[in-house]
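Lab channel / #folding
Pinned by the channel admin:
"Please post every new chain as: sequence first, then the structure tokens as a reply. Keep commentary short and put observations after the output so the thread stays searchable."

First post following the new format, from NK:
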Amino acid sequence: MERKRGFFSSLKEEMVRGLSPSGSRRCRGISPMRGKRVGTSHSELLVERSGSIRLVGETLAPLIEGPVLENGESKRTRRADLRLLLGVLGAPLAPLHVNLTDPLPHLSIKNSPIGNSYAHYILHQYIAASGCPKIQNSVKNAYAIGKLKMVASEFESATKVVKHKNAEKFAESGGFVLWQMNPNMWYMELAVGGSKVHAGCNGKIVWRHTPWLGAHTAKGPVRPLRRSLQGLDPRTTARMFSDAICIGEKSVNGEDCFILKLVADPETLKARSEGPAEIIRHVVFGCFSQKSGLLVHMEDSHLTRIQSNDGDVYWETSMNSYLDDYRPVDGIMIAHSGRSMVTLFRFGEMAMSHTKTRMEETWTIEEAGFNIPGLSMDCFLPPADLGSGSVNEHCEPLLHPNNKPNQEKVVVLESNRW
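Reply from TO:
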């Protein structure tokens, strides 16, 4: 409790001096973090008293190809891995639009297919166990502060497999902070390895800023941040799975769970596609504990086709997230740790030309809270330099014959994770 009181006291003092979150946000993209350290490794990650993540270290440069190996791992390769990690794991979005102003889904069994009836029952168990009614009735905004580690653990091609024998040695450490406010607004800063990614939504558009692409908008409808579904926002999770069906049971880490399946509709997939990049499908599976009723595992998989004169290339991205250490925060159950494993599978063009990349992230929540005083809509304004172009426009360089595989990988995955 002392940490939470310290945060509110600090915030109140800044507001008295005229340094409200909204004022700071306009200047630098502020998040509600206090003067504290977040775990770091190769670069320093400091959190200023005003709340922004401040990096001490170099900014991530554009991707450099042709590394000269030194002891099996070059600095160039490592920075290419970092850009890939941030592009894929930094700020992926959920598959569907969620309207938080709608009431929580009602239990409906009559005149419903059995799969939907089971799903409604499971979802209402989750709503009761997670504290969703309290969020619906009394929570106006929320924040979460966390630490994380990311690593590209394995690369596989048709001819070889390269694994990090000591993945911990090559892991990039950092932290993130997430603000949320009704209706449908969110803002996140994530800093890893000396570089920072911003992403946000003002309820009308979703945008992101990276060191190599600058500020850009997301294609398709407004969607929540996937990280919010990882045990941080039960209300968004409940709404996301309101149209799901129950497809069976499975054991997750020795715990019996029900499986709910959710498929993105064709209209949403079409709206998210642009140019040579066509998103063919996006499917989400949620595993809800039969004992606690809480979400303990989430997997989403999507397939993207990149059209070119040399033949179509397909990218399949699968992300598995395990949610642990649920603890109540003001009566609402929040997952305080977890891990995600991502597999990127590229195939097409010709036989035996596939590649597969695996990466991992672990995270812990250091602090979370609700109803932050002084938080306003100004905190969620998009950057002033936000262009009208969407991120999928960056798929166009894929058609250039001089593109390297890693460069193609980063561009494609940044497109289809958005």
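NK: The mean pLDDT is 79.
TO: also worth noting, The first strand starts at residue 44 and ends at 47.
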